Amino acid sequence: MKLSLNWLKEMLPLTCSVPEIVEALTFAGVEVEGRQQRGAFFEKVIVAQIESFEPHPNADRLSVCRVNDGSGLPRQVVCGAKNFSAGDNVPLALPGAVLPDGEKIRASKLRGTESEGMLCSARELNLAEDAAGLLILPGDAPIGASLSDLYPPDTVLELEVTPNRPDLLSHYGIARDLSAFLDLPPAKLPEISDNSDRVREDPGVVRLEAPEGCPFYTAHVIRGLRVRPSPGWLRQKLEAVGLRSINNVVDVTNFVMLELGQPLHAFDLSKIRGAIVVRMADPGERLRALDEKEYELIPDDLVIADTELALGLAGVMGGEGSGVTATTTDVLLEAAYFNPGFIRRTSRRLGLISESSFRFERGIDPEAVTRASSRAIDLFLQLAGGEADESVVVGGAVPDWNRTVEMRPERCHKLLGMNVPDSAQLLVRLGLKPAGGNRWEIPSYRQDLAREADLIEEVCRMAGIQKISSRLFASATESSSADRTHDELMRLRQRLAGLGLFEARSLTLIDEQALEYTLAPTSDALALRNPLTEDQKILRPSLVPGLVRAAERNLNRGSSSVAVFEIGRVFKVGTPEESVSLAVLVCGERQSKSWNQGSAIFDLFDLKGILKTALSRDVIFMREDPISFAPLLCGIVDAEGNSVGKVGQLRPSLAKEIGARDPVLVAELSPTPGANLQRFRYRPLDRFPAVTRDVAFVANRELKYQLVLDAFASANEPLLVDVRLFDLFVDPSGEKVPRNKKSLACSLTYRAIDRTLTQEEANAAHSRLKSQIVERLGVALRE
Amino acid sequence: MDNDLERLQQTALEEIQQARSKLALENLRVKFLGKAGEISRLSENMRNLPKEDRPRIGKLLNEIRNAVTGALDSRLDAIEAEGTAQVLSDLDETLPGTQFRVGGLHPLTLLQDQAIRILRRLGFALADGPDVETEWHCFDALNTPANHPARNDSDTFYLPDGRLLRSHTSTVQIRTMCAQKPPVRVIGPGAAYRRDEIDATHLNQFNQLEGLYVDRDVSVADLKGTLEYFVRELLSSEVETRLRPHYFPFTEPSFELDIRLPGIQDGKWMELLGCGMVHPAVFEQINANRGDSAYDPEDWTGFAFGIGLERLAMSLFGLPDIRLLIENDQRFLAQFAR
């Protein structure tokens, strides 16, 4: 909401500076989001009258004006505008004036003709957007007067009012709260006629057929008024807070809403056939609203109708055909209380939010409806003439408002951690009345005050949060399983980062097509009912699509290598629905060429090594049938034989699509049970030296290394402590090793825990193992 | 013989002294000490000597052998030392170091972990809750009116079964209190979702850190003390803070905490987090769900807060575009790996 400080000051004797007002509002709970200077806050710009003008002798588009600046001496000003006539009053910037854009005015020659100042447009003075020509001032503006007399400088604040405080959605509401907050005299309103004893019910004029939605409706008719432009003061107030002036009648309804917070609507009486009927819309009923759009209504929508048709959406927007126009003479003024829920429903459903619906859906003060109506009628009579009907026709009754709430001072003390001895006075300042015991009567404009905590909040706000002194506690809390998981995952993240990978964080929502970009395609993904866009519709069942996307981005930006991981939640239909997953993607240079090392490209075994090191446990890859996403696909199995995830290489066409020239390798696995949970346990250090023996052999090309390991293991050789493959050689030419064979060389380490091994013992064990692989795998030893 | 021996020793020592390389030394070792070397040859000649001369000559030969061996060893040390000195003096210590891969954690992880560590120091334990939530956990239990706009399809993501993607991590408060009796002191980091268009300042998914402390005597004073400590530790001891009244359905009183720090948002007040005292209606909802009165609002009070990490990261690190946090550009990530 926009708040004009000039307007506010008419109601409240505020003497403090703008920053002080901003601070007061802030601590009263109203955020100030913007600040804007308005009006003529510049000097040396005055009202001048154009006495005569003639074309510039040397420039077709300029005129030379003779103006009266009130000094009695004639003044000559050159001007480029065309929209004026002799006798018009216009703004004159005198030499020495500084315009809002910083332009300094000085006496000068324009195309050889003397110009003593500048005649200004509204935009040049920052008074309106209109730059079409000179700002034509009212004919009665005193010549020579400063423009700031006509356009008083004002500061307009953009406020964010929280949804629980509809009472602050008007200038009077803000004034009322600030007066309490700053302990100033009560906010004051102009004299308003009291029409409360002039009411009557008349179903021939107002019929309430939906009292749930509209419990109280008032209609006051004023006849013979004259619709015309609003006077300057009214226009200025509306324009200051961002509303366009339309005519005196419409402007008054808007003015009263901004002044008192009660939305009003003025109907052209001649357009109403029969009575005003407040009812629910008929199915399929249509309405053309003031925004010139046609809306199809449903029986959930509350409408204001006449005996024949809907005239407007109650509390949201009037209809096109029934509003006040230049020819209107008789007006029916509506002031009503609408049930917030009804207004909210229609406003949301139609996506139609107006100043009026904004207030009604938050809840207006039901006891202030008639006052607002009277205020508007007073202003109509003052600005448009005419005669108001003797009586106000009402339907229904003001919703009963009677609420008391208890606030125990000791409870207040306990919750705030501060004793507020004058809490009662603070509540009185806010308009609450003592109702006996610790109970308080709540005014009808503060419907948000519903229980004790609400009153304590008011005491806190009024007493000042700054006054509460801070207290710092600390005491032990048992760690939770979430604590342990967090720590394990942080450790895992750090290890992966230590191995040279970057942590990625991607969004949960992915597109349906990305479901294909995973090592375990699923049709069991969770999907949204109301996605915002098609590409964010699915709750990711895998982190792989996110990493593929990250790889693409990095490769497209010229990166020679991608090494990323993500640890995050994934989703699937079933139990558990959400789990934590770890994914790793590598592609491109693992090591770039340097003076002391060659370059290397990430391969499957780099990824295997990364996983083994990061997880500090053995991982076994077991080949699986390829899928379209990954022509190379393996299951990942831990040392106990549990399947923990999958690893694969991206389809080359897809790799190319994302800009990769090297293999893109990706793994995804569950990092949870036991991964890093193993606790440390001391094992005696080796005391005796180890003996190493190598074995080299030629095997069939398709022999898997795992089988070699299995063969060694099956010998159950207690002295064997380690097997390391140090050479693998295939010869496509078939010269050194036949084409269908490969040569492997392993280094085997032997050690006894209780003695130094003799050469003989080591040799004997080594021979046994050599014959083991020959017998089991049929390989040929290379001696 | 004696003279021969003396000459031999002298020649050997001279030649050794003049040797310039390891190879030359090795040749000399063979020449003098090898099986066919001169000392061996003389030793073999011993049997031609008179018996009485043999012990003396034998001793002399031994002395020569020792002297030659010693000379060879020390000359070798000297040559090696010269070689090392040469290598070291030739070494260009300004050559670049070996390149190792550098990785790093995501800035949001760093920030989140830092926040967690600070709050743990005060005795907060971590708590958890699902991203996919029921409307009860996300709204009803948090005293959100049935017609509150946050519940609209336009604001919150829903699943076909009526559940939703939590719009705030305050659900963790509810999860925790439903599962355990007071006192409770937990923090819940996690993702929350809003149905927003993604642009330079908005994501539809963001990270929050929720905090909840419920005990017999928790007051606004504790809330203030905790949050002031938290931001001081997280940002700087220079940071200024202020609490402003605000509105959330699930806390009463409610506040926003602003911070002011040179270098962040031009030293202007910046909104950092929302907080407040747990609304008694929330406790009543929890009790109804638990079927007991473990959280009797007359006995227990509490505070809660929720901080959005993306906005803080943007101000703290000076990010011009929030999407940097989800693009995973390694050049960006590397800036946080130093």
Quick description:
The complex is a heterodimer of chains A (783) and B (338). With 783 residues, chain A is of the alpha+beta class.
Plain-language structure description:
The complex is a heterodimer of chains A (783) and B (338). Chain A is of the alpha+beta class and 783 residues long. In chain A, 25% of the residues lie in helices and 27% in strands. Chain A is built from 18 helices and 41 strands. In chain A, strands 27, 31, 32, 33, 34, 35, 36 and 37 form an eight-stranded mixed beta sheet that branches. In chain A, strands 11, 13, 14, 21, 22 and 23 form a six-stranded mixed beta sheet that branches. Chain A is elongated. Chain A starts with a strand and ends with a strand. The model of chain B has no long low-confidence stretch (mean pLDDT 92). In chain B, the strands form two sheets. A seven-stranded mixed beta sheet of chain B has the order 1-4-5-9-8-7-6, sandwiched between helices. Chain B has twelve helices and nine strands. With 338 residues, chain B is α+β, with helices and mostly antiparallel strands. In chain B, a hairpin with a 2-residue loop joins strand 6 and strand 7 (251-260). In chain B, helix 1 runs parallel beside helix 4 (54-90), helix 2 (22-33) packs antiparallel against helix 4 and helix 7 crosses helix 9. Classes of the chains: A alpha+beta (783), B alpha+beta (338). At the A-B interface, helix 2, helix 7, helix 10, helix 12 and helix 13 of A face helix 5, strand 1, strand 4, helix 8 and strand 6 of B.
Largest sheet of chain B: 7 strands, mixed
Please state the CA-atom Rg of chain B, rounded to the nearest Å: 41 Å
Biggest sheet architecture of chain A: 8 strands, mixed
- The residue-averaged pLDDT of chain A reads 92
Termini separation of chain A comes to 91 Å
- Quaternary structure type: heterodimer
Most extensive interface, chain pair and sizes = A-B, 93 and 84 residues
What is the total tally of β strands of chain A? 41
Give the strand line-up of the largest sheet of chain B: 1-4-5-9-8-7-6
